[in-house]
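Two records follow; treat each independently.
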Amino acid sequence: MKYRLGSGGSRCPICNKLLGDYGFDLHEALFTRGDLSGVEWQDEIFHPYNCVGVCTKGCHLEATSDKGQVDCAKSLIKMHGYKPILEWIDTLPFKSSTTKTVAQSVLLEAQNG
């Protein structure tokens, strides 16, 4: 997945620089490992509908802010579309709806803003 993000003109959703020109990290945008700590299906979040490339220096930290999370969600929507991501979220086997609802809210804010 990281190779695909670094090629073909992908840009950092925070600073808009081409990812192939700079070092970059994968960032879990809607759900993080911390959000799902201890959940047996945690690896399912490493999905193209949840991961974006962000610049290593500074942008990765900024991506964790509320604005950064929305900017990352906008990038995901641009790449994959709102509806497929929302449908993917619905397939995840949450026991509590809080984390799911937060991710859906971020996605909706990105779609509308």
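The next record belongs to a different protein.
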Amino acid sequence: MGGDRETHRTDRRVFRNGRLALSQCLVYLAASGDRLRAEKLLKERRRSLDYVPEVSVVTQLVLKLFGVGEGTRQVEVVDAFKLRISSECRPY
């Protein structure tokens, strides 16, 4: 049983690392001026990026700074990070 739990943790880590790599690639393309390629990749892989909400919202905000994508709504940012923020810091 312990092996199954460890395998599951490893799978989640690999899954998350893949989303981080996608995020880094998108931001690099946008920052280096290849906005068309970044837009195309974002359109193709957006659903994949959305599986890790924290990565998704931060990536979308940074991409918006470079003129790629539509950004994200405030509520999406709050929802993505609400469990990581102590209750004393939350507005509600």
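Discussion point: The chain has a mean pLDDT of 85. How would you locate this feature using only the token line?
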